[in-house]
Amino acid sequence: MAREKQAEAAAEAEGTPERSYREQLDFLNPIARPLASRKLTRKLYKCIRKAAKQKQIRRGVKEVQKFINKGEKGITVLAGDTQPIDVYCHIPIMCEDRSLPYAYVPSKSDLGAAAGSKRPTCVIMIKPHEEYQETYDECLEEVEALPLPL
Question: Which string of DSSP letters, residue by residue, matches the chain?
Answer without folding.
Answer: -HHHHHHHHHHHHHHSPPPPHHHHGGG--TT--SBPPHHHHHHHHHHHHHHHHTT-EEESHHHHHHHHHTT---EEEEETT-SSGGGTTTHHHHHHHTT--EEEES-HHHHHHHTT-SS--SEEEEPP-GGGHHHHHHHHHHHHHSPPP-
